[in-house]
Amino acid sequence: MNSEKNKPVLELKNLHKSFGDNHVLKGFNLKLFKGENLVVMGKSGSGKSVMVKCLVGLIQPDSGSITIKDEDIIKMGHKELDILRTEIGFLFQGSALYDSMTVRENLEFPLRRHKDKIENFQGTEILVKEALENVGLADAIDLMPAELSGGMQRRVALARALILKPKIIMYDEPTTGLDPITAKEIILLMRNIQKKYNTSSLIITHDVDCARVISNRMILLVDGINYAEGTFQELSNSKDPQVQAFFKN
Amino acid sequence: MLVNIIFGLSFSFMNSSNTILTRTKSFFAEIGDMTLFAGRFFREVFSPPFEFKELLRQCYNMGNRSLLLVGVTGFILGLVFTLQSRPTLLQFGAQSWMASMVSLSIVREIGPVVIALICAGRIGSGIGAELGSMRVTEQIDAMEVSGTNPFKYLVVTRIVATTLMLPLLIIMGDAIALLGSALIENLKGDVSFLLYFNQVFDALKFSDIIPATVKSVFFGFAIGLVGCYKGYYCSKGTVGVGEASNSAVVYISMLLFVIDFIAVFVTDIFF
Ligand SMILES: Nc1ncnc2c1ncn2[C@@H]1O[C@H](COP(=O)(O)OP(=O)(O)OP(=O)(O)O)[C@@H](O)[C@H]1O
Ligand SMILES: [Mg+2]
Asked: Which residue of B has its CA nearest to A107?
């Protein structure tokens, strides 16, 4: 399915980023193929969030190239970037729900500029309801984010990231800070959505269970570079102590 | 020994002058950044898309939240000011000047400055804290990713809202202050409300009201600008949010007096 001859939908080449003296990324490479679930693992503070934020243009990298669907996003203007972003769903590490708005308004927010993007658009209301049903929270539509538990917030954030039916989804630590059962629910949701809409997903995590269940392929981010790549099986059986460190509990 | 002390003293002096130098530098760097921020505001405020709905919501919120505070402050201001001035004016037998004196000083100077300071604490720090926490919890990034320009949606609407609302709040506060003053005159000096306000409108000229209103437009702009700047570039963590709202108030208060000084200076030349 994901033969290496396929063209990647998303490609990072030789990405560098420093904050002052803190060299976070030192030549990171990554390819995401159509329909695959790629997991990126790395220690806390290794620059995973910085890497995905570069991917959606929230952080400007110092050097390197980022191509999404054959377009270089670093050279892109604001308008083109906004259009491209409608095809990318982004789940923030801390959910990032707008806390002055209700759940409904949160979900409507991505729709306000991009109604024309959606095939056979039938009204905001229907889309919002559908997105909430997908994550099993149809009842929460008129609550404020502060009234939701952490796990529910994560699910609303997931619904918001998916409401424009993006082709590429990036999850920044979807299960961190959740109990194992809720985490499992979120992982299942992610898998269902991937099957239902045939999306390509980039999943950032340090949760080994999550990686085992969901990954087609994995990349380990160590010292700012893609230290090792392979399937979950290959990496978990690796002899390299740096790689082993990720898998033993 | 002596050499050591001299050496130590000169070293610590160098050190302290160094921190003063760096702090002065960072102060001016911040002024520069704020100017750039204002420049970006003027570029984005006139280009579509316009966020009218959010602008209205902000105006409503700010007015609604400050109404009572400004009203009470204005009323007490009028009461106290009149009570304090009465004995002095009585001594000179100049009681009939009360209305004109109070109205001129409140409309031209005290009203705008006091109410703007109140609003710096109420609105400016609120904006700093709100945008700051939105920055820290990545809500601003989330807006950017979902195709809404957060600068337009959050910053432009708030700065326009404070610029529009502050003159209104100040005019209202002035009016209530004069009402308080009239009340004292009515109770203590047997001046009817009608007579008092007749005297007030006799004393006030457009050359008093217009500069004061122009000044309050600038006050509103300063409150919105600094509050938004501090919040928008808030540093990470809850400490950053507190710092943003706190330093917003400090900077705004300073800026208000600077604007006031310039305004008085300019008014003096032209009127
Ligand atoms: N805006 C920023 N300014 C300065 N330094 C930053 C900034 N963002 C991230 N960093 C630094 O970059 C490094 C990587 O941060 P990042 O958030 O990418 O870590 P992470 O791999 O996502 O970790 P975690 O698993 O804890 O989320 C950290 O050392 C952090 O201090
Ligand atoms: Mg992270």
From this structure: B146
Tokens for A156? 């609303």
CATH number of the domain located at residue range(s) A3-87+166-247 in this protein: 3.40.50.300
Q: Is the ipTM of this complex over 0.90?
A: no
CA distance A134 to chain B (A): 20
Name the one residue in this structure whose structure tokens are 């457009």. Answer: B206
In a domain, B78, yes or no: yes
Assigned token pair, A27: 């030549």
Instruction: Indicate if the pLDDT at residue A3 is higher than 70.
Output: no
Distance A221 CA to ligand 1 centre (A): 13
Return the CA Rg of chain A: 18
Spell out the residues 6+ positions from residue B233 whose beta carbon is closer than 8 angstroms to its own: B33, B135
For chain A, what is the total number of helices (H) and then of strands (E)?
A: 9, 10
Closest CA to B137 of B51, B231, B61: B231
For the cut 70, the answer to whether the pLDDT of residue A2 exceeds it is no
Please give the residue range of the domain that contains residue B204.
50-270
Answer whether A12's CB lies under 8 Å from A64's CB: yes
Rounded Cα distance between B218 and B224, Å, is 10
- Measured between CA atoms, the residue of chain A closest to residue B146 is A110
